[in-house]
Design goal:
This protein is mainly alpha-helical and 460 residues long. It contains 16 helices and no strands. It has one domain. The protein starts with 12 loop residues before the first helix and ends with a helix.
Length: 460
């Protein structure tokens, strides 16, 4: 099994992180293009359909985050165990993680189908838009079975040190979705124009292909899954280990889409064009920060192995390297947004008001992307060292402590731009706090380790 041969505790840090990150970039790029393609082609149908997509975005993100949290917990558990546990133990961890993900998805499908209309009414969707939302979500929920296996399975593969294979599978899923979108959404040739239903069906085919490919690797190449059911006590113990990280990680991830849902409700008072624009920029941010997000996924593995071997100084250097990269990438995004905000917004709609609002958001918020990147690197390091609560706390502070209250006040006493400045301020404050907190924590751990070693030398 290749997993045991991957050691991230030696070698130059920057080249190693780059080697692991670039395949993840292409995979995550595929997933973001997945969403952007849906937004692009739905924007060609009309503003109401685009607004409907805007309302579905936070809900889709919430549900995906539940599964992703299990994947993060699995990745953290396996990356910390891979150099010390037996192959049979890793195999059981992997199988039990997938079983946990499938159990969660069954609950999501049943609950989701029963709550589409009341949920989106609560989010502020009008009676005119709700049928459009129902067309999309009633199909999308059934496709969750195709989401859980690739999401958890790819984290298992990634934890072994193979970031190329998951990235390739994610890209293939996205390519299939992008190819099918214009045929199923707009209608070409023998294909009828299905609008939002077409976007959901294209998603099912893309995700389904990813699930098949992931299972083939897990079963045939890695031989890391077993059909033998363990006893209830063992399942409970493994699920507990996964959820110790995955629970707070899920809460941390959920905070963002839940907050976007709340902010969408705040933005809705400014009209359908504002909701449509906010849906566009939410997806654009996913695309813009994809490189840092990929690095963050790698930092879980890097931090887990180095923390496991108590290489604290190396972990500090890795944090500095990752943060410097986040700053550099954020400045690039800032320059791009200042120069090309309006042309970028024009890619998704012809509506002048939606374009204006989208461009305004990018111009205001883009400078803070460097700090948001530092936050993303830092919370993944916290997860990797088995400290999930700070990650959830920092994310909660950013969204519930700063962004939402400030956005609510701005919507009353200022205007829509005030909501955007709220995001700007929240990113800068919490990004700075994340680096300071984590670096000081690691520095203390390093000093304590050195003190312990000196005491042992004196004793000898």
């Amino acid at each position: 099994m290749r997993a045991k041969q991957t050691d991230l505790t030696h070698g130059a840090i920057a080249p190693l992180l780059l080697k692991l990150t670039w395949p993840m970039i292409f995979g995550m790029l595929g997933m973001v293009l997945f969403n952007l393609a849906d937004t692009y082609f739905i924007g060609k149908v009309g503003v109401k359909e685009l607004a409907a997509m805007g309302f579905t975005f936070p809900v889709v993100m919430v549900i995906s985050s539940l599964v992703l949290g299990v994947g993060i917990g699995t990745s953290s558990l396996i990356s910390r165990s891979i150099v010390s546990e037996s192959y049979d133990t890793i195999k059981k961890y992997s199988s039990e993680a997938l079983l946990l993900g499938l159990s969660i998805v069954i609950i999501i499908i049943i609950t989701g189908q029963l709550t589409i209309r009341p949920l989106f009414r609560t989010l502020g969707a009008s009676e005119e838009i709700i049928p459009l939302i129902h067309d999309y979500m009633s199909i999308w929920y059934w496709g969750m079975i195709f989401v859980v296996v690739p999401m958890v399975g790819n984290n298992i593969i990634r934890a072994t040190g193979d970031t190329f294979t998951p990235g390739m599978f994610m890209s293939i899923s996205a390519i299939i979705n992008i190819i099918l979108d214009p045929f199923l959404i707009l209608g070409y040739g023998i294909f009828p124009a299905l609008s939002l239903k077409g976007a959901a069906i294209a998603t099912l085919f893309g995700r389904g292909t990813g699930m098949i490919l992931t299972l083939l690797v897990l079963i045939r190449r890695e031989k890391i899954l077993t059909l033998k059911l363990p006893n209830l006590r063992r399942i409970t113990r493994t699920w507990g280990k996964i959820l110790y990280i995955g629970g707070p990680a899920t809460a941390s991830i959920l905070i963002t889409p839940l907050s976007i849902g709340i902010v969408t409700r705040i933005v809705a008072k400014f009209g359908e064009e504002a909701v449509a624009a906010f849906g566009v920029v939410s997806r654009l941010e996913m695309f813009s920060l994809i490189v840092v997000n990929a690095l963050g996924s790698v930092m879980i593995i890097f931090a887990g192995q180095n923390w496991g071997k108590r290489k604290i100084s190396r972990l500090q250097n890795g944090l500095r390297t990752g943060s410097l990269f986040a700053i550099a990438w954020g400045l690039i995004l800032f320059v791009i947004s200042q120069i090309w905000a309006q042309p970028i917004a024009s890619l998704f709609t012809d509506d002048a008001e939606v374009i204006r609002i989208t461009a305004n958001y990018l111009i205001i918020v883009s400078f803070s992307y460097a700090f948001q990147g530092i936050l993303m690197v830092g919370i993944n390091v916290f997860n990797g060292i088995n400290k999930p609560l700070p990650s959830a706390g920092l994310t909660a502070l950013r969204m519930f402590g700063l962004y939402i209250p400030l956005a609510w006040l701005a919507s009353i006493y200022w205007n829509l731009s005030g909501v955007f400045w709220s995001a700007f301020l929240a990113n800068i404050v919490v990004g700075s706090l994340t680096f300071i907190w984590l670096y000081r924590y690691l520095k203390k751990q390093n000093n304590d380790q050195k003190f312990s070693i000196n005491i042992q030398k004196v004793s000898v």
